[in-house]
Design a protein that fits this description.
mainly alpha; 1 helix; GOLD domain-containing protein; signal
Length: 42
């Protein structure tokens, strides 16, 4: 049972890290995404 829960946690963590990238101080990255007006973007 513990192995099953551990496997499930690893699978869920892998799926949760979808949008992560490193931006250096001199680099510029841009992407366009439709988000609702009431959503706060950090």
């Amino acid at each position: 049972m513990i192995k099953y829960v551990g496997f499930l946690a690893l699978v869920l963590c892998h799926c949760a890290s979808g949008l992560y990238f490193h931006i250096a101080e001199t680099e510029r990255k841009c992407f366009i995404e439709e988000i609702p007006d009431e959503t706060t973007v950090l």
